[in-house]
């Protein structure tokens, strides 16, 4: 029963943060970009083109396009992706339906470049929050997922190609290169902001701890910080004496707790701390690398030990 409650709380937390992320995204889009007539990438960009060209409702158009893409991609992208996308698209549609009519003029008057920067930053932060909580913003990542499934083109590269095509299409409506430049600036800043949020969530630290009380420190870190320690044996070249080193991996936000543990046990401990962009494995992130079946089989085959001459003769 406790495990079920824990799973339920995790889902509640994820969907709450996904809603917060989409709220941030929709606010940036509705209050800063749409009033400036800036066409962004993704399905919101397609909805913007239809809004500026034919005065179609942005929220409804956004939902209809996503529904069409999902219907096409249902067998390709998998059930979990479809569920996450439907939830994300529904929340985003409701938020766009509320926010778009509220902002007839951009918040920062007569400052299109400033509106693009602020809007892009808000959209990027929102997308970063959504992605770090296993959500989907829907949109052209459905197309990217389909293309990646059936070709060797990466997910990110496909997204860039599709977004640039949508942004460039704004020239057919406005006949303005400025709008295209603003759209490309949006794409660049938005992706940077999203990466910052995602990377800050994954950022980890590595500790190298030199102490005569290494056993007590290792036990305390394992017991109180719930992090494993690896014991390394070395030689201090200056003293020519044997030494023991603790290697500890932890999340960035756990570093102060580990420092307190070390200081409480040995104030004279020699400690080095290094920032690491990612740690993968048990207790940290999962490795998310996509391999073609043939490529995976070739790697596994090459990793197998070579058969000895005696065995081959038998």
> What fraction strand?
5-15%
Assembly state (oligomeric): single chain
Q: How would you spell out the order of helices and strands? A: HHHHHHHHHEHEEHEHH
Q: How far from one another are the termini? A: 57 Å
- Spans of at least 5 consecutive residues whose pLDDT stays below 50 are none
Total strand segments: 4
Major sheet description: 4 strands, antiparallel
From the alpha carbons, calculate the radius of gyration and give it in angstroms. Answer: 26 Å
Percent in helix: 55-70%
Average pLDDT, rounded to a whole number, is 83
Structural shape: elongated
Structural class: alpha+beta
- The order of strands across the largest sheet is 2-3-1-4
Number of alpha- plus pi-helical segments: 13
Main attributes of the structure:
64% helix; elongated; four-stranded antiparallel beta sheet; 314 residues; alpha+beta
Describe this structure in a few short sentences:
This protein has 13 helices and four strands.
Protein architecture, described:
The mean pLDDT is 83. A four-stranded antiparallel sheet has the order 2-3-1-4, covered by helices on one side. Helix 1 runs antiparallel to helix 5 and helix 10 runs antiparallel to helix 11. The chain contains 13 helices and four strands. A hairpin with a 4-residue loop joins strand 2 and strand 3. The longest helix is centred in the N-terminal third of the chain and has 32 residues. It is an alpha+beta fold and 314 residues long.
């Amino acid at each position: 029963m406790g495990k079920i409650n824990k799973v339920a709380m995790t889902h509640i937390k994820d969907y709450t943060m996904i809603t917060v992320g989409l709220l941030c995204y929709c606010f940036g889009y509705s209050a800063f970009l749409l009033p400036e007539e800036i066409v962004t990438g993704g399905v919101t960009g397609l909805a913007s083109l239809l809004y500026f060209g034919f005065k179609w409702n942005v929220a409804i158009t956004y939902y209809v396009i996503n529904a069409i893409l999902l219907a096409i991609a249902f067998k390709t992208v998998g059930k979990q992706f479809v569920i996450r996308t439907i939830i994300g698209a529904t929340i985003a549609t409701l938020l766009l339906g509320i926010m778009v009519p509220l902002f007839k003029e951009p918040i920062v008057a007569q400052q299109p470049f400033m509106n693009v920067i602020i809007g892009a930053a808000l959209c990027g932060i929102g997308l970063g929050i959504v992605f770090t909580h296993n959500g989907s913003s829907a949109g052209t990542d459905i197309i990217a997922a389909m293309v990646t499934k059936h070709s060797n083109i990466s997910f990110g590269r496909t997204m860039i190609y599709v977004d640039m095509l949508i942004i460039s299409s704004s020239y057919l409506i406005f006949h303005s290169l400025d709008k295209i430049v603003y759209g490309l600036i949006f794409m660049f800043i938005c992706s940077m902001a999203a990466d910052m949020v995602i990377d800050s969530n994954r950022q980890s630290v590595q500790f190298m701890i030199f102490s005569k009380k290494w056993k007590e420190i290792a036990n305390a870190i394992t017991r109180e910080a719930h992090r494993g320690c690896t014991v390394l044996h070395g030689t201090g070249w200056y003293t020519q004496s044997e030494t023991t080193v603790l290697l500890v991996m932890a999340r960035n936000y756990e570093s102060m707790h580990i420092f307190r543990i070390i200081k409480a046990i040995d104030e004279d401990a020699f400690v080095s701390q290094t920032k690491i962009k990612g740690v993968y494995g048990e207790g940290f992130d999962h490795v998310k690398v996509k391999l073609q079946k043939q490529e995976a089989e070739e790697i596994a085959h090459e990793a197998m030990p070579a058969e000895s001459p005696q065995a081959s003769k038998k």
